[in-house]
């Protein structure tokens, strides 16, 4: 169900920060800071927008459960292989998308002025 402007914002990433389509054969580092919001979620979905089933039953992160670095920054590693820290499994060889939801965000009223530089980076690392 889409969020109303007063409730929050949803963003979908189909490409990485280098402009390449997200590929399940590659590892990705999501890092930086989130735009101001009371609460946020980051989920991995298949290209049709559904949760990607995985034996770990880990489908995303929330702002309340994420391990952060010394400041307010964070990093999440997306990979088919388990990793220490904030790891989000990529479950298949299919394409996928990332969905970021910001709840009760100061940006809700002026979402069109939010620059991509204000969103986390999605950096492709190694590919199989």
CATH architecture: Sandwich
| Global Rg | 14 Å
Net shape: globular
CATH topology: Jelly Rolls
> What is the helix tally?
0
Q: Which regions have little confidence, pLDDT < 50, spanning 5+ residues?
A: none
Q: What oligomeric assembly is this protein in? A: single chain
Main sheet: strands, sense, barrel: 4 strands, antiparallel
Key attributes of the depicted protein:
128 residues, mainly beta, Jelly Rolls, 4-stranded antiparallel sheet, 4-stranded mixed sheet
Characterise the protein shown here.
This protein has about 130 residues and is mostly beta strands. It has one domain: Sandwich (Jelly Rolls). It contains no helices and 8 strands. The chain has strands at about 10-15, 25-30, 35-45, 60, 75-80, 85-90, 95-105, 120-125. A 4-stranded antiparallel β-sheet has the order 1-7-3-4, with no helix packed on it. The protein has a 4-stranded mixed β-sheet with strand order 6-5-2-8, with no helix packed on it. The protein is globular, with a radius of gyration of 14 Å. The mean pLDDT is about 85.
Secondary structure topology:
Layout: E1 8-13, E2 26-32, E3 37-46, E4 60-62, E5 74-79, E6 87-89, E7 96-105, E8 121-127
Parallel strand pairs: 5-6
Antiparallel strand pairs: 1-7, 2-5, 2-8, 3-4, 3-7
Question: Could you provide a short overview of the structure?
Answer:
This protein has 128 residues and is mainly β. It has no helices and eight strands.
